[in-house]
Backbone:
């Protein structure tokens, strides 16, 4: 995997020295802003009271063991929170503190209660059934007094409320018991009178038998219909008993009903008697299940603002912002041209450095280039001509071609593992237009063919096609888009050395170049309105796989990665991606964004390498022969010795 180069301490120190006034200014602005803001804030003090809500374990629970112990739940604690912050508790607290008087208007009373509610906060603690009452105020004594008073008033009202409820229950039971007692006495008096007349209660036994048979009948009806023999038998017996009951004297019937009511009222009377004893015990208990665990104490130091913490944050934040501003401005500086700068910035290897090459001498480039040497980062206007320098014999152009030979050897190391590259599709793109990618693709294809590779150059930059111009072809039609649209076959779109002879290149330049037979070209093709649809089709993958199987290296001249969407569609179908970066011209942020875009599609490490183009002494490259730097960390020493120092 490619080695990742981090900035070392010397690099950070150099940035700090260059941007020292930005760091000092940013730090001073942040620190003193927080310092002034902290000292302008009104100090607030916080006092807290901790209450514990005990389970309702009463003496009545011991006397009557059938009752359960009631533990406070989360929902119950929520009701306590609402009760503490309710108007009843707050108003009584204010009256006991003397903050509300009888001669005060209702509006003033509401203002006082609202102020207390804003200062008071109640929340549950993690440790069981505990509540914390917190008061935040500008006066430390007020905070402590108010917190303790609210807790005291709440405890008092809680006891009164529970005892009042027990009192109401006792009174209700007593009244009900009296009514039952009076009714029972009247029923017993009437029963004795009937007994005196000689009534023996035979009607009661008949009624009991009827009730028993009716219960049995209801049980049978759950399983059978009314026509079932057993049900019909019970109906017959019930009717017989009812006829018998009608023959009895009226007193006997009344006596039976009266005995049943007496039995019911006696049971109710006995139950109410027991409940009355329990209610009296409960009323005498003086229930208080709220315990004061920790009273409030007047705080010595303000809760807000926390000056020590704020000053520490100001110190750290000032350093962070100052350093960040320095790094941001450093990153915004587009004067990145050195190999180690590019590698350390985007953590990708520079596989080739292409020097500036032109027929014009450096002295004739104009005053603008002289200013560029002074103000580094100004966009360069130096352009490399869109022509093939392989056919020129000038010395400085030989150095230009030598850079491509070094690049070819580096590609062989990366994609061939020091052996010959076989069946690889390499996409060459750039961040923005006019960075020289088409020129690099053309010369790289030529050098690879000189090394004995079968090379195919495909122009996929349909918007600004230039491969056909560089190789002197008359037109771009009958090319790649025509293959995708099915107008021509892949083989019919391939341009060979014969097509170059018929183009703008002279025959004498081609006939003595046998390596041109190993170089084929496919132009961009006819203009299509749905280019992205064509690139995203199965035909695209089929076409690339077809050419991949027939050539050693397929060089794809793609559109700029940040300008259009077609390169992102092409990325998954390639074996490697090379990014052309025009030194001293394109923003370093665009370079990083281009790498991010590539890795978002192909994954981490999807960028195979960077080709630094248009390098001039003005931009800052000390030497073109920089390849002693290693690019891989998983190589052993023997492989490094075999590769030598002439390339990566």
Residues:
């Amino acid at each position: 995997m490619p080695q990742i180069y981090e900035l070392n301490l010397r690099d950070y120190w150099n940035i700090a020295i260059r941007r020292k006034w930005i760091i000092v200014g940013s730090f001073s602005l942040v620190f003193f802003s927080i310092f002034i803001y902290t000292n302008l804030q009104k100090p607030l003090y916080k006092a807290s009271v901790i209450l514990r809500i005990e389970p309702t374990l009463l003496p009545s629970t011991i006397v009557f063991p059938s009752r359960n112990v009631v533990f406070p739940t989360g929902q119950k604690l929520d009701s306590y929170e609402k009760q503490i912050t309710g108007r009843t508790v707050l108003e009584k607290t204010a009256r006991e503190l003397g903050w509300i008087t009888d001669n005060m208007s209702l509006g003033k009373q509401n203002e006082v209660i609202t102020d207390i509610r804003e200062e008071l906060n109640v929340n549950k603690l993690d440790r069981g059934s505990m509540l914390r009452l917190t008061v935040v105020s500008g006066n430390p004594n007020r905070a402590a007094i108010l917190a303790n008073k609210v807790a005291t008033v709440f405890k008092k009202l809680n006891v009164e409320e529970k005892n009042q409820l027990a009192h109401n229950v006792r009174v209700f039971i007593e009244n009900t018991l009296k009514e039952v007692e009076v009714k029972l006495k009247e029923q017993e008096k009437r029963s004795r009178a009937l007994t005196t007349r000689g009534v023996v209660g035979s009607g009661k036994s008949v009624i009991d038998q009827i009730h028993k048979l009716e219960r049995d009948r209801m049980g049978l009806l759950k399983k059978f219909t009314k026509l079932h023999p057993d049900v019909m038998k019970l109906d017959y017996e019930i009717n017989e008993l009812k006829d018998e009951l009608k023959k009895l004297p009226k007193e006997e019937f009344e006596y039976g009903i009266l005995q049943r009511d007496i039995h019911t009222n006696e049971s109710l009377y006995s139950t109410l008697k027991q409940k009355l004893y329990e209610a009296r015990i409960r009323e005498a208990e003086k229930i208080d299940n709220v315990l004061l665990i920790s009273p409030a104490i007047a705080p010595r130091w303000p809760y807000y603002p926390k000056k020590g913490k704020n000053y520490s944050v100001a110190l750290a934040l000032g350093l962070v912002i100052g350093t960040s501003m320095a790094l941001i401005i450093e990153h915004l500086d587009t004067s990145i041209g050195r190999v180690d700068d590019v590698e350390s910035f985007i953590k990708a290897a520079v596989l080739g450095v292409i020097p500036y090459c032109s027929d014009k001498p450096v002295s004739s480039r104009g005053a603008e280039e002289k200013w560029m040497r002074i103000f580094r980062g100004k966009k360069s206007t130096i352009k490399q001509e869109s022509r093939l320098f392989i056919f020129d014999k000038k010395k400085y152009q030989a150095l230009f071609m030598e850079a491509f030979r070094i690049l070819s050897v580096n590609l062989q190391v990366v994609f061939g593992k020091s052996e010959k590259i076989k069946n690889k599709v390499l996409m060459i793109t750039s961040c923005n237009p006019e960075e020289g990618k088409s020129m690099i693709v053309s010369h790289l294809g030529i050098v690879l063919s000189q090394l004995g590779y079968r090379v195919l150059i495909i122009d996929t930059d349909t918007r600004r096609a230039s491969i056909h111009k560089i190789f002197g072809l008359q037109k771009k039609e009958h090319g790649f888009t025509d293959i995708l649209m099915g107008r021509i076959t892949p083989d019919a779109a391939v341009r060979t050395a014969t097509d170059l002879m018929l183009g703008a290149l002279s025959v004498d330049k081609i006939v003595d170049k046998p390596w041109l037979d190993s170089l084929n070209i496919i132009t961009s093709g006819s203009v299509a309105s749905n280019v992205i649809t064509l690139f995203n089709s199965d035909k695209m993958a089929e076409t690339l796989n077809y050419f991949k199987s027939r050539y050693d290296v397929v060089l794809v001249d793609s559109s700029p990665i940040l300008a259009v969407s077609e390169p992102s569609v092409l990325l998954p179908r390639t074996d490697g991606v090379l990014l052309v970066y025009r030194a001293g011209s394109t923003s370093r942020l665009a370079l990083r964004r281009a790498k991010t875009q590539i890795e978002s599609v192909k994954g981490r490490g999807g960028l195979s390498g960077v080709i630094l183009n248009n390098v001039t002494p003005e931009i800052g490259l000390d030497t073109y022969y920089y390849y002693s730097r290693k690019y891989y960390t998983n190589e052993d020493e023997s492989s490094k010795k075999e590769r030598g120092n002439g390339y990566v």
